[in-house]
Design brief:
single chain, alpha/beta, Elongation Factor Tu (Ef-tu), domain 3, Rossmann fold, Ubiquitin-like (UB roll), 3 domains, 6-stranded antiparallel beta sheet, 9 helices, binds flavin-adenine dinucleotide, binds FE2/S2 (inorganic) cluster
C-alpha cells in the first residue's frame, strides 16, 4: 500500500473515532496555526503607542502569504462572544525576520473592535485572518521624490512603507491634535535625525486643521512628488481637489478608512428573513449596522465597500448605494454590499 493510501485510511479511521466532529476540528484546538487550517494568527504582544493607540504583534499561521508595504489585513476578533471583522493596515516591514506582522490600532469612541484590541487584547489570543490585500502600495520603480500626507491613524499604512523602502527624498506632513498623539513619533524623529525623512507635524489643537493650500508653503514642490495620503475624508477630499486642479491627480494615491457617504434618502422596513427579524431603518444607516444592531449575524470586513466581505442577496424591495445614490432593486441573483447600502423603502435581506 502506498503511503498516501495509508494516510487516507488512517484519516478515515480517525474520522470514525472523532465523529460527530472532524479530526481537523481537534487539530484546530491543538495546532490552530498549522498549514491547512483556516488562516488564523496568535496575538503575541500588545505595545502601547499613544494614550489611545497600540501596536498588536501577530504571528500568522502557515498559510500566510506575506504582504506588500501599504496593504491591509482583515481580522476577525471575538468581542463579547461575537466574531467581528475589521481591516487594519500592516505596519511591519515585509522582511521582518521573525515572520510576525504588526497592526497599529487607534481606539475610537464607542469603537467595539478598536477598544478591544487597544485596551483588552491579551497575548495568546487567537484571531482570524484573511490574506493581505489593497492597492495603496509603492510602485516597483522608485519615484525620485515622495510626499506622505497623513493624519491620525492614517499614518499606519505609510509607516509600513517607511519601514520597508528608503527613498532619496521623502517629505512627510502629519496631522494630530497634540505632539503626544503622534503615533510612532520617536521613530519618525529618529528618521529625521538620520536625514532619511523631512517631517512637518501639524498639531491641530493649536495650529487648527490643515488648510491644504498651506502645502505651497510647507512643501513647495508638492506637485512634483509622488504622494500617498491617508487620513479623514475632509483631508483626502481636499487633496484630491487640489491635485486635480493642478492636473497631477495621477501622482496622488489615497487610502480611506471609512466610505464617503454622499447620498441618503428615505428608509423603510427591513426584514432579515433568515433570522426572522424586521426593523425600521432610516435611509442613511448602512444595512450592516442595522442588522448588527438588531442582533442579526452579518458578515463584514472593511465596512467601507472595498473587500466585498459583506455581500448578501437582496430578496425583495430596494436599497440605495450610499456612495453614489444608485438604487438596486431585488431580482433573482442580485447581491448587495450591506456596508454601503441603506434601505430605499421596504426590503428583505437574506440574513
Ligand atoms: C483599508 C483599511 C485600513 C484600516 N487601517 C486601520 C489602521 O491601521 N488603524 C486603525 O486604527 N484603523 C484602521 N482602519 C479602521 C478600522 O477598520 C475600524 O474601522 C476602526 O478600528 C473602528 O472599528 P471599531 O469596531 O472600533 O468601531 P465600530 O464599533 O465599527 O464603530 C463605532 C463608531 O465609530 C464610527 N467609526 C467607525 N470607523 C471609524 C473610523 N475609522 N474613524 C472614526 N469613526 C469611525 C462608526 O460609524 C460608529 O459610530 C482601517 C480601515 C480600512 C478600511
Ligand atoms: S464589508 Fe468590505 S465591502 Fe462591505
Amino acid at each position: 500500500m502506498t503511503s498516501a493510501a495509508l494516510r487516507s485510511r488512517a484519516w478515515k479511521l480517525l474520522e470514525m473515532v472523532t465523529t460527530p466532529l472532524l479530526p481537523s476540528d481537534y487539530l484546530d484546538l491543538v495546532s490552530p496555526l498549522r498549514a491547512g487550517a483556516d488562516l488564523c494568527g496568535r496575538i503575541e504582544a500588545v505595545h502601547p503607542e499613544t494614550g489611545d493607540a497600540a501596536t498588536v504583534v501577530i504571528r500568522p499561521g502557515r498559510g500566510w502569504r506575506g504582504h506588500t508595504a501599504g496593504q491591509y489585513v482583515r481580522i476577525g476578533v471575538d468581542v463579547d462572544g461575537v466574531r467581528l471583522w475589521r481591516a487594519y493596515s500592516i505596519t511591519s516591514p515585509t522582511n521582518r525576520q521573525d515572520g510576525r506582522v504588526t497592526i497599529t490600532v487607534k481606539a475610537i469612541p464607542d469603537g467595539k473592535v478598536s477598544n478591544h484590541l487597544v485596551r483588552r487584547a491579551k497575548p495568546g489570543t487567537m484571531v482570524q485572518l484573511d490574506q493581505a490585500t489593497g492597492d495603496f502600495v509603492l510602485p516597483e520603480a522608485k519615484p525620485a521624490k515622495v510626499l506622505y500626507l497623513t493624519a491620525g491613524s492614517g499614518i499606519t499604512p505609510v509607516m509600513g512603507m517607511l519601514r520597508d523602502i528608503e527613498f532619496d527624498d521623502v517629505v512627510m506632513v502629519h496631522c494630530a491634535p497634540q505632539p503626544q498623539d503622534v503615533i510612532f513619533r520617536n521613530e519618525l524623529h529618529d528618521l529625521v535625525a538620520d536625514e532619511k525623512l523631512r517631517l512637518t507635524e501639524v498639531h491641530t489643537d493649536t495650529d487648527g486643521m490643515l488648510d491644504i493650500a498651506r502645502l505651497d508653503e510647507l512643501v513647495p514642490d508638492w506637485a512634483e512628488r509622488e504622494t500617498w495620503a491617508c487620513g479623514p475624508a475632509g483631508l483626502l477630499d481636499a487633496a484630491e481637489e487640489l491635485w486635480s486642479e493642478y492636473g497631477v491627480q495621477e501622482r496622488l494615491h489615497t487610502e480611506r478608512f471609512r466610505p464617503s457617504i454622499v447620498v441618503a434618502g428615505d428608509g423603510g422596513e427591513v426584514t432579515f428573513s433568515a433570522t426572522g427579524k424586521t426593523v425600521d431603518a432610516d435611509g442613511a444607516t448602512p444595512l450592516l449596522d442595522v442588522g448588527e444592531e438588531a442582533g442579526v449575524l452579518m458578515p463584514s470586513g472593511c465596512r467601507m465597500g472595498i473587500c466585498f466581505g459583506c455581500v448578501t442577496p437582496l430578496k425583495a424591495g430596494a436599497v440605495r448605494d450610499l456612495r453614489t445614490g444608485e438604487i438596486t432593486e431585488a431580482e433573482p441573483g442580485v447581491l448587495i454590499q450591506t456596508c454601503v447600502s441603506a434601505a430605499a423603502g421596504p426590503c428583505d435581506i437574506e440574513r
